[in-house]
Amino acid sequence: MHPSSSVQQARDALAARLREIRLDSGLSAREVASMCGWHESKSSRIQSGRQAIADSDIKAWCAACGAAEQDVAELVSMNRQLDSAYIEWRRMQRGGLKRLQAAVIPLWEQTSNFWIYEPGVVPGFFQTHGYARALLTRIAEFFSTPDDGDEAALARVERERLLYTGDHRFAVVIEESVLRTSIGNADLMAGQLGHLLDVMALPSVSLGIIPFTVFRSMWPVEGFWILDGKQVVMETVSAKITVQQTGELDLYRRTFSELSSMAVHGERARNLITAAIAAL
C-alpha cells in the first residue's frame, strides 16, 4: 500500500461517516445540499470522498441532518488530522534541512516507545554525522533546497542523546540491504556500521536485521515509525505522511510484528554487520 493511499482511505472513512449521518436522518443528498445552500454535486463529492472538506461544510452537513454535537466534534477532529496528514516536502524544506531536523525533536522527546522499520537507510537516531551529512546533502541537491547539510546533520545527530537519557525505548527492524547500501565512501560506511554495533548494545535499543536469506512472510514495505502506538510517521519521496486512524494503526502494528518475527537479533545481527564491514 502506497502511503498516499492512507490519506485517501482516511478521506473515504470521513465521507462514509457523513453519508451514514445523512442516511440516519432520512434525507437525500439533494435535500442536504438544498438545506446547506449548495449545488447538488457538492453533496455528491463530499460523500464520495472526491474532494477535501472544510470544517464549515461538516458543521453545515451535520446541522442539516440533526447530528449530535459529539459527532460533529469528532468529525471536525478527523478532518483536521486529515489536513495535517499529508505535508509536501518542498513546503517543509523551504526553511532548510536543519530547520526540518530540529522541528521534530519536541515530538521525539515526548515519545517513550518507538517502533521503527527502515528498508533502505540507517534510522536517523543511529546515524553518524558523516553518514547523515552525505545523505542530507544529496537530498538538498535532489530537491534544490538550501544546502545546509552539515548543520542539518548536526541537528539530526543531536537526537541521539535520547538513546541515553529518559525512559525512551527503541525497537528497530532494518533490512540487510541497509548494511550493504553505500552512503558516502567506504570509510564513512565502515564508521557507520561500527556505530551500529555500539548502539545495539544499549539497554534502550533492540535492533533486528532481516537477512537476505530469510523466508519472507512479509514483503519489504515503506519505512515507518510508530510513536507510542498513537501515530505512524513515514517519509516518501514527495511527502511526510502521518497516520492516526485506529484501523490503520492496527495494520502498522501487525506489519511491524510480522517484520520483527523475520529479523535476527543479538549475535546473529552483529555477524551480519561485521560481514558487511568486511565486504567494504
TrEMBL record:
GO MF term set: DNA binding
SUPFAM superfamilies, alphabetized: lambda repressor-like DNA-binding domains
DUF5753 domain span: 114-274
InterPro entries named among the record's database cross-references: Cro/C1-type_HTH, DUF5753, Lambda_DNA-bd_dom_sf
CDD domains: HTH_XRE (cd00093)
Top-level taxon: Bacteria
Protein name in UniProt: Helix-turn-helix domain-containing protein
Organism of provenance: Actinomadura soli
